[in-house]
Amino acid sequence: MTGTRTSMSIRTRRVSTARTAGIMTLVAGGVLLFGVGCGGSGSSSSTQTTTTPPATTSSANVLAISVDAGPDTAEPYANGAFASVIVCTPGTTTCQTIDGVLVDTGSSGLRLLSSVLTISLPQQTANGNPVAECLPFVSGYTWGPVQTADVELSGETANAVPIQVINGSAFTVPSACSNQGAAENTLADLGANGILGVGNFVQDCGDACVSTGASNPALYYQCVSSNCTVIGEPLAQQVANPVASFAKDNNGVIIELPAVSAPEATLNGSLIFGIGTESNNALNGATIYPVDDFGNFITIFKTSSTTITNSTSFIDSGSNGLYFFDSAQTGIPTCSDANFFYCPSSTENLSATTEGAGGTPSSTINFSVANADALFNDNPTANVFEDLAGPNSISGFDWGLPFFYGRNVYTAIQGQTTPGGTGPYWAY
Amino acid sequence: MRERRGLQGRCGLATRLSAILLWVGTTILVTTLPAFAGLGEDVISVQADQAHMQGALRTTETQAYTLQEIQGATGTVVREYVSPAGKVFAVAWQGPFPPDMKQILASYFSQYQQAAQAQATAHKGRRPLMVQLPGLVVEAGGHMRSFAGRAYVPDMLPQGVSAEAIR
Questions:
Q1: What domain count does chain B have?
Q2: Contact state of B96 with A294 under an 8 Å Cβ cutoff
Q3: Which of A67, A226, A417, B147 is a plausible cystine mate for A172, CB 3.0–4.6 Å?
Q4: Taking CB atoms and an 8 Å cut-off, how many pairs form between chains A and B?
C-alpha cells in the first residue's frame, strides 16, 4: 500500500482521509477510530508496517490490496481483499481517501458507506427527483442514493461515474427492497467501508433496469420526499465498474496475490488495471475461459460416487472461501457451530475441472478443504485462510478469494477488446 | 450420474416433461387471491405469486408432488413444490435477479430475515447464505446477475422427497 500513498503525496488535490482499514497492520502503531475524517494529507498516513513486500512495485495502473482483518475492529474479516480508493467531487480538488474497501470481482460498481464519506457528492436525479438504488446481494441488499464522483484508483481516474452511497436511513427503504431480506447498510453488516466492484460487467444491472414495467427488476428508484418508486434507469446513469471508464487500461483487471501455505495475518498483493495494455499486465500465457451472459462458467466436481457438472459456477474475489455444493453431494460435513463452513475431520485434498462457458478450454484446479473450526481456533490472529470452504447448495461452485492465492486471475470486461479476445472472460 | 445444471438446462428439462402451460389473467388474480403466497401456503397461492411476477406458469406432475414453475418477466424462474395435500412445501429460484423473498417465503419471511441478518454479522465475510432452522431451510448463492437458491420446510416434505430434489 506504500506505493499508493506515495503516489497520493504528489497530488495537488486537497485530500482528507478516512483512515479506517489496515487496522491489523497498524494496530501496534496507532489508535485509529472508525469513521473519523482525519483531515490530513494522504501521505501523512503512510506509516504502515508490512510483513511481506508488495507483489508488484508501484505503477500508475497498480492499486495495492491487502488481505487483512478489514476496517471493522469489532470482528476480523476472513479472506477479504481490501483497497484504498479516492473519491472526489467531480471536476474539483475536493477529495477523500477511503480505505477498507472490499475488492469484488463478483459485482460491478463502487459502493461506499455514507458513514465514512465526509465530502459532498452531487446527487443523481431523474425528473428532478433524487435517484436511489436497492442492490440485491446473495445475503441481502444495500440501499442508498446514487451520487456522482471522480473515482481515483492508484494513478487511474474514472470521471463523474455513478456510485452508490449506502445509507439505510436515506429516504424510506421501499418494501420491494426490504422484501429482499437482510439489510447490509452498515460496517457491521458489510465488514467493509465499501465494495469496489470490478467484475465482468460494465453496469451493475444492465438492460433490464432500462426497461419499465414487469421486466424491470426494481433496482433503481426516484424519491419524492421519502417515497421512492421504481424507474427505468439509462445505462449511462447506472452504477458502473469504474475501470471501464478509465481513459486507458480499461478492459479489465488482474488480481495478483502470493501463494499461502498456512494461515497468515496479512497478505499483500495488487489490483492491476488493463489486460495487455502495459508492460505489467500482459496475459503471459494465461488461459482464457469465456463466461456466459450471466457471468458464469462450468465446473466439474467428481467424487468416488458421483460427478457433478455445474454451469452456474464462477470466480469471485468477494466470496471469502471456496463454496461448493453441499454435504450430501460432497460427503464433507459442515461445522456444527457454523453451517456455512465445511468441517472435515482432517484436511481433504480435492480437485475440480474448470471449463469455459462453452465447454472449452478446461483445466484441473487442486484445492484443499480444512476444518474451519480448527482454522479459526488454532489461528486466532490470522485473516488469510487458503483452505476455508463451505457449502453452496444449488448455485454452483463459487471460487472465492482462496482461488486467487498464488494465481494471477484476469477479469475481462464485457465488450472490451483485449489481446486475448473480447470480454467477458476470466484468465489464469 | 452426470448432470448439467443451469438456467437453460432446466428450461429444457421442463420442456421435455409433459407440461401444461397456463396463462391466467393477472387482474382477476390480484383481486381474488390471498396477499400472502408461497411457502407453507395453499396451492392457490402459486397463482398470486405468478401474478406478482407477471410471468408464465407451467405445471408438472410427479408422483410425489406437483411442480409449479413461474417464468418471471425479469428472467428469474421460481419453482414451487406442492404436496399431495395441496401445500407449497418448497420453493427454488434461479435467474439474473433474486425473487421477491417476502412473496415466496410468505409467513416464513421474518424468520428468514432475522436469520439472514444474524448470519451477515457472524464470522465476518461475504459468502452464500445457509439458514438452517428447525422449521425452515433457506440456501442462496450466486453473484450479481446470477442468483439461485431454495427454501423448504423440512417437516412438510412429502414422504420419499429429499431436499436434493428441490432445485
A1: 1
A2: yes
A3: A226
A4: 212
Domain count, chain A: 2
What is the pTM for the complete model shown? 0.86
In a domain? residue A281: no
pLDDT at B106: 95
Range of the domain at B140: 7-165
* 3-class secondary structure per residue, B22-48: ECCCHHHHHHHCCCCCCCCCECCHHHH
Least confident of A357-371, A400-414, B1-15, B31-45: B1-15
- Put simply, the answer to whether B101 touches A181 (Cβ < 8 Å) is yes
Looking at the structure, tell me whether residues A57 and A169 fall in a common domain: yes
Q: Please indicate whether, in this complex, the C-beta atoms of B146 and A314 are within 8 angstroms of each other.
A: yes
Nearest to A108 among B96, B121, B144 (CB): B144
Distance CA A127, CA A121 (A): 19
The separation between CA A265 and the C-alpha centre of its own chain, rounded to angstroms, equals: 20
Contact state of A393 with B149 under an 8 Å Cβ cutoff: yes
Range of the domain at A354: 287-407
The residue of chain A with its CA nearest to that of B109 is A181
Pull the grid cell for residue A77. 474479516
Binned at pLDDT 50, 70 and 90, residue B121 comes out as: confident
Judge whether B123 lies within some domain.
Answer: yes
Q: What is the CATH number of the domain that holds A383?
A: 2.40.70
Closest CA–CA distance from residue A218 to any residue of chain B (Å): 10
Q: Give the confidence band of B37 by pLDDT, cuts at 50, 70, 90.
A: low
Give chain A's radius of gyration (CA, Å).
21
Residue A36 lies in a domain: yes
Residue A322 shares a structural domain with residue A229? no
Residues found in chain A: 428
Q: Based on the fold, state whether residues A172 and A53 are members of the same structural domain.
A: yes
Is the pLDDT at B21 greater than 70, yes or no?
A: no
The radius of gyration computed from the CA coordinates of chain B, to the nearest angstrom, equals: 15
Q: Give me the residue from A76, A180, A323 closest to B127, CB to CB.
A: A323
Whether residue A77 and residue B124 make contact (CB cut-off 8 A), yes or no, is: yes
Instruction: Mark which residues 13-52 of A lie under 8 Å from B by CB.
Output: none
Separation CA A301–CA A233 (nearest Å): 40
Residue A115 shares a structural domain with residue A178: yes
Query: Looking up cell 479506517, which residue turns up?
Result: A20
Cβ of B74 and A295 within 8 Å? no
Do A102 and A11 fall into the same domain?
yes
Q: Is A206 on the interface with B (CB under 8 A)?
A: yes
Percent of chain B's residues with pLDDT above 70: 78
Rounded to a whole number of angstroms, the distance from the CA of A296 to the nearest CA of chain B is: 8
A314 shares a domain with A177: no
* A32 and A145 housed in the same domain: yes
Across A116-226, the runs of DSSP E, i.e. the strands, are 125-126, 129-137, 140-153, 156-166, 182-183, 194-198, 220-224
Contacts of A139 in chain B (CB under 8 A): 116, 119-120, 126-129, 140
Question: Do B96 and A217 count as a contact with CB atoms less than 8 A apart?
Answer: yes
**Mean of pLDDT over chain A:** 89
C-alpha grid cell for residue B63?
408422483
Are residues A205 and A314 both part of a single domain? Answer: no
